[in-house]
Design brief:
The chain is mostly helical and 169 residues long. The chain has a domain at 32-149. The chain has helices at residues 2-50, 55-65, 68-80, 86-95, 103-110, 121-168. The protein is elongated, with a radius of gyration of 21 Å.
Length: 169
């Protein structure tokens, strides 16, 4: 009986700690995804400046180079561009994405849709650069939030687990 109680208490502590780590992971994931978007948009800018590829082709290339949720957004956008405008496809792919980005992050990235495929080369490049500047600000905010909250949630998970163990003993 004591062995079962001991195993149960350890399980509570481990589950609580894992929950804290899982919650803290979303902050580092958000930072990682914002950095991936920056890389992807830099690739996009260079490709449209120096090649004559269409936007869907460029997005396909980006989806091959950038893995995870961000790559999937570019892949879905390229697929959706077959049946809708580039801006609509971009917004739809972002709305349907499974990222850890905040609503503000998504709105910043969706801002690119206003000019996507609608302006000349210089207009597109300027819009990409503007989006990159906004993303840099969002990335700085995300880094601060990660530093503040990541350790807190890890510690909180372990502390709550330990408190529950003490209470149940």
């Amino acid at each position: 009986m004591i062995l079962i109680k001991f195993i149960f208490l350890i399980a509570i502590f481990i589950a609580s700690t894992i929950l804290g780590v899982a919650i803290s992971k979303k902050y580092s994931t958000r930072v990682h995804e914002l950095k991936q978007f920056q890389s992807a948009l830099n690739i996009f800018e260079e490709k449209i400046k120096f090649t004559y590829e269409t936007i869907p082709d460029v997005f396909e290339d980006i989806s091959q180079n950038i893995k995870g949720n961000v790559g999937e957004i570019f892949e879905k956008s390229a697929e959706n561009m077959r049946i809708m405008s580039a801006g609509e496809a971009w917004e739809k792919a972002i709305d349907e994405s499974n990222t850890k980005l905040t609503k503000e992050d998504k709105d910043t990235i969706k801002g690119l849709a206003k000019m996507l495929g609608k302006t000349d080369l210089d207009g597109q490049v300027n819009e990409i650069r503007l989006t990159l500047k906004f993303l840099e600000t969002k990335l700085q905010d995300a880094e601060l939030e990660r530093k503040k909250n990541e350790k807190m949630f890890k510690t909180l998970g372990a502390t709550v687990g330990l408190a529950l163990v003490i209470i149940l003993v």
